[in-house]
């Protein structure tokens, strides 16, 4: 018997099954670094776009995964990172807007790429993911590095242009062009990405449960 058959959902930790996964990269952030004020100018409108995409993902049963830096806090977990960013960060409005829900997944990463020395690869395998929608901060660093590693693992890539930001628009546009040209990423705006329920049907009940818990964001 294969490992997948014996342990098909990571002992209940990965019950969703869908060929698409939405990754939110470093959006739980204290913005405590040089140039953060400039980045926040772009992060605030991006967060509203991303919230709408996240809501659509819930309705389609698409797993939502927070892939977050530990910001050098080796003794902290994701909940402590969230609490620190909300209470002591410089962009609490962004963090509160994109605060994870109970059924979301989270992966802590020690470096730029979400795949490096993390459990992301294992989680995506159990979710049966084939296509990744990469979003978050910063487009020219952590999103780009994660996209590069995802491409080498043969994932199909979407990087919606209005759901990732860098310190400047020029830097972000340059990163998007690189991902589109060399990593074959689709960079259409989030509203143009069509999300569908998995043909496997495993995620249907979870999507309904989330719909009862949440209210859609205002336009």
Strand content is 5-15%
Q: Which shape, going by the Cα principal axes? A: globular
Query: pLDDT average, as an integer?
Result: 83
What is the helix/strand order?
HEHEHHEHEHEEHH
The computed structural class is: alpha/beta
Q: Any idea what the radius of gyration is?
A: 16 Å
The level of helicity is 40-55%
Main sheet properties: 6 strands, parallel
Distance between the termini: 49 Å
- The assembly state of the depicted protein chains is single chain
| Unreliable spans | 10-14, 201-219
Number of helices: 8
Total beta strands: 6
Describe it:
41% of the residues lie in helices and 13% in strands. It contains 8 helices and 6 strands. The chain has helices at 3-6, 36-60, 78-88, 92-97, 120-127, 142-152, 169-182, 204-213, and strands at residues 20-25, 64-69, 105-109, 131-137, 156-158, 164-165. Strands 1, 2, 3, 4, 5 and 6 form a 6-stranded parallel beta sheet that branches.
Brief synopsis:
With 219 residues, the protein is an alpha/beta fold. Helices cover 41% and strands 13% of the residues.
Furnish the topology, listing elements before pairings.
Blueprint: H1 3-6, E1 20-25, H2 36-60, E2 64-69, H3 78-88, H4 92-97, E3 105-109, H5 120-127, E4 131-137, H6 142-152, E5 156-158, E6 164-165, H7 169-182, H8 204-213
Parallel strand pairs: 1-2, 1-4, 2-3, 4-5, 4-6
